[in-house]
Amino acid sequence: MRRVLAALAAVLGCAQALADAPAVGQGPALQFLSEHAVEGMPAGNLSGLALCGGELWTVSDRDDDRLYGLRPDEAPGSVWQARAETFSVPGLPDSGLSWGARARTWLYGLVRGGAMDFEGVSCDGKGNRYLVSEAYAGVLRVPEAGAAQWLELPPTLLRQARASGLLMVNNAYYEGLAIDADGKRLWLAAERQRRGLLRLRNENGSWKCDGACVLLSEGGTALPPPQLESDKPLALDFSDLALYQGKLFTLERLVHQVCRRNADSGAAERCWSFADGALAPQRRYALPYGVAEALVIDDKGAWIGLDNGDAARADGDARPYVLRFAAPAEGWLGGK
């Protein structure tokens, strides 16, 4: 009975979040500033970004044992050299996935590579890095010194997510995360079909749902930007999260936009398009969807990282790239 009531509460909470959320469309364009190829990530697949103490950290969804440090250099065209930091994964997280789902994930990892499928990275004020595993719906804490450890996420998290229609499609689980500076609140982004936002709170070392686990759950499709010349609608998605000045920012890969959202409800407040800069002719990939999978928001602008897989862009370059965009003239928190 408790599980039924919890699931019902989650569904009702999401219905309210959907009712409160304004429609999200293409907003004003962000000004493109520079692009930076990344070398030293042999497997490519740059899948997340976090700014920690002046250094950017990234992950590859093909590497199970390392993060990469990047020194941000904003000089136009500068190439960034990735510095690997290795760690050991302590087994598999107990996230509540069924035996069948875990078996399918294991087989998929054998074929594709990257069993953990790390898709996002964030950090707290103490320098701890947090990696989200899409394959196993878990969050790994990697301290600056000491052993990595899976967070003990509450069993209600997966139950409420699925009661709200999230995490129902294999390879479409958690795609991004953000944690606040004191390490007490954690947000997760469910990727697609349906996409959503979830939130947890750390109380005396124990992770619990912060009210309802699910802040937002929404479906729907949209066309990619016209530069991609596709007339096929695809599922709306979230591909990363960032936390800035108490606001949550979502990276929305398909429609090529960044949206500022209320961190307590998930409701969209304002969106900005990065399509013009990311889809300049020389930067396009022969793919019908976007490849932006990493986001950092700071005072001066946004860093957006591209996970191009093995695909080369129009100019023949197959290296991962990080793009720099200027903050809006009124700042990230200005405007309506």
TrEMBL record:
Keywords: Signal. Residues 42-194 form the Phytase-like domain. It holds the Pfam family Phytase-like. The keyword Nucleus does not apply. The keyword Cytoplasm does not apply. It comes from the Bacteria. This is Esterase-like activity of phytase. It comes from Pseudomonas delhiensis. The lineage of its organism: Bacteria, Pseudomonadati, Pseudomonadota, Gammaproteobacteria, Pseudomonadales.
